[in-house]
């Protein structure tokens, strides 16, 4: 029994042991599996961390760099936006405004606590306690980031972070932007107080409808200052700034109201609103005032001022302005640079923050506008856009300051398109003083009494009216505005020479296509010219030939950078010689005073000395008058918006009368003032014509220099062409080697005649370099050249032999022709007999004797027959007595006819004497007409 129990116990223990061992085995296996899983997981984690680090580290480094750059340059000014750009006239009166959002920065003391609390409740409930980053909100946003596969779907930004976003970053939700916010936020909290940050936030938020900052939004939506916002108004603004388009109370009032109530609920939840106040606020009426503030105000004055301000800012950047161009590539390259720079400055001005102070005189502006409007009032036709079809534009420059003081770009004040500087029209004859006569006088070759032939030629211009006056003085040609003379003058002095004068005066609409175009002399430009450029050009004449680049800008201020133009001074240059301009001005006075001046009747009141020029293009499509005194210059253009013919309209009609009207007004109470004669100008008689006029005492020297300059320019062009062709030459045959040597000799012979030493050296170097290349080739062809020269010698000998034979043949033919002519003279003497002259037999014998001279001639028989016919004809001619009788009868008949004519004249004389006796007693005899007098013959 005991044994049985022992065996049972042993088996039980053994079973338990095996069970224990099995359990330990299972546990060991489980432990090994767990360790394996942990190892694999750790390896995966390390790999994943490494991959993430490699991927994210560059972006983190970029974020750190970005955050450092922002922090290093941070200032309070960054948190303030720009106010509207304002333009002022010469008296400091506002004449224009560019709406940049009507921004106005307000400090925290003038921002309602209701709005501050609304933002804290809705946007950042831990604003007052965190240090720039709300890590709870950030963790929540991080979970969302992981959940949506790395895509940012919700924010966790504090107000501090939003200030950073509004000021320094974009509105795009990106990982990089978020990291930069997190890095910068604590630093800003260290630098600025919570009140500062709230102030920045309220002033940098956008509220829709061009409202930047809480002050602009408060005034637009509620018609009050930000300090006076009620709790429900503050909640409305807090909701709008979250998404200005979605919660626009004007476009989406219901959505905006719901958002307002949502903000109020948040304020209630944090204890800023009691339940009672919350209920009252959500039940408050949703009223939007939508206060309309002053919008962008652009008119003729302000648009021109903005244009000029952009140019001034470009000058501050040292932009390389250019006005004439070598070719299309030069023109296009410049235009691309100019448009980019100009657009940048124009956009900058329109972005706000500028105060532009100008020379524009609002009183004078009104007078100029009235002169244009009244002068064209009889033309009432309208275009489809409601604007007048016939338009006008004018610019006034104060010659004493060189500023533009008035600019009118069209009829009426409603049309904002400023044709005075935006449009380019063909100037007609008004361009002649600037591009033809002024430059021509500067050369010294032209002067008022110089004679030029006014005539029509093929492919040349026509004069207005079709009249041509032959040799005329330059003075008369300009007063009559003769196109043919202007054309000849510009062609003589050089088209581009004259064009460069316009470039010196900064004409802005010139093109490379205008180069070398002779029609420029009478105003035929590719695009035309601007009224303001013509005014500045004539103002240069008024100021003794000195151009000043002033426009209408007196100073430009920026609210951040102060007076930008304080160190800028106007650029001046002597474009025309003083003596040239004095003589030219004296001629242009004749436009109004000369019997044949094209502007007769436009002289100014009070005997104010004035000079000017009319301009009328083909079919009167554009008409101009440009004129000046010592005080002011005014340029006026009249024409249809879409160019069309204006029969009977000329520069002296509407444009001229508008000019006279405004000039008379602005010269009221100003004493007459004439130009002073320069010391280099004298009044004397022309040595050739005896006509007394003005002359420059230095003209002869300048004329000689001008002639020399022309010769040098011609030589320069010729040598450049020769060297270019020499460099392009290649040697392919032996003949080419001779051509190369000839070209080389021609170039080196002419080079010493060139004055420009640097150019001479460069051309010589190019020539020698190329000739060295040719000599290498020529030396390699030496054997061929020797054989060629031998062949040339043989050919030359053959040619000489042939030439001698040809010469001998020509001599023989000439001798035959001479002998034949001798016989023909004798034959003609016989054939031309009119009667049987006494020496007829001798003439016949002479002809018969010379017949051998034509022996062997192909016409020998024909000539012999002619002589035989002539001999037989003699017997049919009248005898000498018959011939004399005929002559006597003809003389008697002629004498009788003359006698009859004398008798008729005597009879006519008697009748005329009788008429005189009958009529002469009436002359100066008032008694003959009776008591009533003579009466009138006019209808």
UniProtKB/TrEMBL annotation:
Membrane-topology annotation of the record: Single-pass type II membrane protein
Source species: Enterocloster asparagiformis
Compositional bias (Low complexity): 898-910
Name the UniProt record assigns to this protein: Penicillin-binding protein 1A
GO annotation, cellular component aspect: outer membrane-bounded periplasmic space; plasma membrane
Lineage top rank: taxon: Bacteria
Transmembrane segments: 12-31
Domain Penicillin-binding protein transpeptidase: 392-664
Gly residues: bias regions: 930-939
InterPro entries per record: Beta-lactam/transpept-like, Glyco_trans_51, Glycosyltr_51/Transpeptidase, Lysozyme-like_dom_sf, PBP_transglycosylase, PCN-bd_Tpept
Annotated catalysed reactions: Preferential cleavage: (Ac)2-L-Lys-D-Ala-|-D-Ala. Also transpeptidation of peptidyl-alanyl moieties that are N-acyl substituents of D-alanine; [GlcNAc-(1->4)-Mur2Ac(oyl-L-Ala-gamma-D-Glu-L-Lys-D-Ala-D-Ala)](n)-di-trans,octa-cis-undecaprenyl diphosphate + beta-D-GlcNAc-(1->4)-Mur2Ac(oyl-L-Ala-gamma-D-Glu-L-Lys-D-Ala-D-Ala)-di-trans,octa-cis-undecaprenyl diphosphate = [GlcNAc-(1->4)-Mur2Ac(oyl-L-Ala-gamma-D-Glu-L-Lys-D-Ala-D-Ala)](n+1)-di-trans,octa-cis-undecaprenyl diphosphate + di-trans,octa-cis-undecaprenyl diphosphate + H(+)
UniProt subcellular location: Cell membrane
General function of this protein: Cell wall formation. Synthesis of cross-linked peptidoglycan from the lipid intermediates. The enzyme has a penicillin-insensitive transglycosylase N-terminal domain (formation of linear glycan strands) and a penicillin-sensitive transpeptidase C-terminal domain (cross-linking of the peptide subunits).
Biased composition range(s): Basic and acidic residues: 888-897
Coiled-coil residue windows: 790-834
Pathway: Glycan biosynthesis; Cell wall biogenesis; peptidoglycan biosynthesis
Domain Glycosyl transferase family intervals: 95-267
Single biological process term from Gene Ontology: cell wall organization
Pfam families in the record: Transgly, Transpeptidase
GO MF annotation list: penicillin binding; peptidoglycan glycosyltransferase activity; serine-type D-Ala-D-Ala carboxypeptidase activity
Family from the record: In the N-terminal section; belongs to the glycosyltransferase 51 family.
Residue numbers spanned by region Disordered: 888-939
């Amino acid at each position: 029994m005991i044994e049985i129990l022992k065996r049972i116990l042993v088996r039980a223990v053994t079973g338990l042991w095996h069970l224990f061992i099995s359990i330990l085995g299972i546990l060991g296996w489980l432990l090994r599996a767990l360790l394996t899983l942990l190892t694999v997981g750790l390896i995966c984690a390390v790999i994943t961390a490494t991959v993430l680090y490699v991927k994210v580290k560059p972006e983190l480094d970029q974020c750190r760099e970005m955050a450092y750059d922002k922090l290093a340059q941070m200032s309070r000014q960054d948190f303030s936006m720009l106010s509207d750009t304002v333009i002022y006239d010469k008296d400091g009166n506002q004449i224009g405004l560019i709406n940049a959002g009507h921004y106005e920065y307000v400090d925290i003391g003038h921002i309602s606590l209701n709005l501050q609390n609304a933002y804290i409740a809705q946007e950042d409930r831990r604003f007052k306690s965190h240090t720039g980053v709300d890590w709870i909100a950030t963790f929540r946003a991080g979970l969302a980031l992981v959940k949506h596969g790395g895509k940012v779907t919700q924010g966790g930004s504090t107000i501090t972070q939003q200030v950073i976003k509004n000021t320094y970053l974009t509105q795009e939700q990106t990982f990089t932007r978020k990291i930069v916010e997190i890095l910068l936020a604590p630093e800003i909290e260290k630098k600025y107080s919570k009140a500062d940050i709230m102030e920045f936030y309220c002033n940098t938020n956008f509220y829709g409808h061009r409202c930047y900052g809480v002050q602009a939004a408060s005034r637009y939506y509620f018609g009050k200052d930000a300090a006076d916002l009620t709790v429900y108004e503050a909640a409305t603004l807090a909701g709008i700034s979250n998404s200005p388009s979605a919660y626009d109370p004007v476009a989406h009032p219901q959505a905006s109201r719901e958002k307002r109530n949502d903000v109020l609920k948040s304020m209630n939840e944090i204890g800023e609103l009691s339940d009672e106040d919350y209920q009252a606020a959500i039940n408050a009426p949703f009223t939007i005032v939508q206060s309309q503030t002053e919008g962008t105000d652009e008119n003729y004055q302000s648009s021109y001022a903005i244009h000029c301000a952009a140019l001034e800012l470009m000058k501050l950047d040292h932009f390389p302005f250019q006005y004439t161009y070598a070719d299309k590539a030069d023109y296009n390259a410049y235009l691309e640079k100019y448009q980019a720079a100009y657009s940048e400055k124009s956009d900058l001005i329109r972005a706000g923050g500028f105060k532009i102070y100008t020379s524009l005189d609002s009183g004078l502006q009104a007078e100029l506008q009235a002169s244009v409007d009244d002068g064209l009032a009889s033309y009432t036709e309208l275009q489809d856009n409601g604007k007048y079809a016939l338009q006008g534009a004018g610019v006034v420059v104060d010659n004493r300051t060189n500023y533009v003081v008035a600019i009118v770009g069209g009829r009426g004040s409603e049309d904002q398109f400023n044709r005075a500087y935006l449009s380019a029209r063909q100037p007609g004859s008004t361009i002649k003083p600037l591009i033809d006569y002024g430059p021509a006088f500067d050369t010294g070759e032209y002067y008022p009494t110089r004679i030029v032939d006014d005539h029509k030629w093929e492919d040349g211009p026509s004069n207005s009216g079709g009249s041509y006056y032959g040799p005329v003085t330059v003075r008369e040609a300009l007063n009559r505005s003769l196109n043919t003379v202007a054309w000849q003058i510009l062609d003589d002095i050089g088209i581009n020479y004259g064009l460069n004068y316009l470039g010196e005066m900064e004409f802005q609409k010139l093109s490379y296509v205008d180069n070398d175009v002779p029609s420029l002399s009478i105003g035929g430009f590719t695009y035309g010219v601007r009224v303001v450029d013509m005014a500045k050009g004539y103002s240069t004449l008024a100021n003794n030939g000195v151009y000043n680049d002033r426009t209408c800008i007196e100073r430009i201020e920026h609210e951040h950078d102060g007076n930008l133009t304080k160190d800028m001074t106007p650029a001046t240059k002597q474009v025309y010689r003083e003596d040239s301009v004095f003589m030219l001005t004296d001629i242009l006075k004749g436009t109004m005073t000369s019997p044949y001046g094209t502007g007769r009747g436009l002289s100014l009141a009070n005997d104010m000395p004035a000079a000017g020029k009319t301009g009328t293009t083909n079919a009167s499509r554009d008409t101009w008058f440009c004129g000046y005194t010592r005080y002011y210059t005014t340029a006026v253009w009249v024409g249809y918006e879409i160019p069309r013919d204006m029969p009977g309209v000329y520069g002296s009609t509407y444009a001229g009368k508008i000019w006279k009207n405004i000039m008379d007004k602005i010269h009221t109470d100003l004493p007459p003032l004439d130009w002073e004669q320069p010391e280099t100008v004298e009044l004397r008689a022309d040595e050739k014509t005896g006509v007394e006029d003005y002359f420059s005492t230095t003209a002869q020297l300048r004329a000689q220099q001008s002639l020399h300059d022309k010769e040098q320019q011609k030589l320069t062009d010729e040598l450049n062409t020769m060297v270019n062709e020499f460099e392009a030459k290649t040697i392919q045959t032996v003949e080419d080697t001779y051509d190369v040597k000839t070209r080389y000799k021609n170039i080196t012979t002419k080079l010493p005649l060139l004055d420009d030493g640097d150019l001479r050296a460069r051309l010589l170097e190019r020539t020698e370099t190329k000739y060295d290349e040719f000599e290498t080739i020529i030396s390699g062809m030496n054997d061929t050249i020797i054989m060629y020269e031998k062949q040339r010698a043989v050919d030359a000998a053959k040619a000489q032999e042939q030439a001698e034979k040809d010469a001998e043949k020509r001599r023989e033919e000439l001798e035959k022709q001479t002998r034949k002519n001798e016989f023909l003279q004798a034959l003609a003497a016989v054939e031309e007999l009119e009667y049987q002259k006494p020496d007829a037999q001798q003439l016949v014998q002479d002809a018969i004797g010379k017949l051998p001279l034509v022996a062997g001639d192909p016409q020998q028989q024909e000539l012999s027959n002619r002589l035989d016919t002539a001999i037989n004809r003699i017997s049919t001619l009248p005898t000498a007595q018959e011939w004399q009788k005929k002559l006597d009868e003809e003389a008697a008949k002629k004498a009788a006819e003359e006698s009859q004519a004398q008798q008729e004249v005597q009879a006519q004389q008697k009748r005329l004497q009788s008429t005189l006796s009958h009529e002469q007693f009436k002359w100066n005899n008032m008694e003959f007409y009776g008591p009533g007098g003579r009466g009138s013959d006019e209808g």
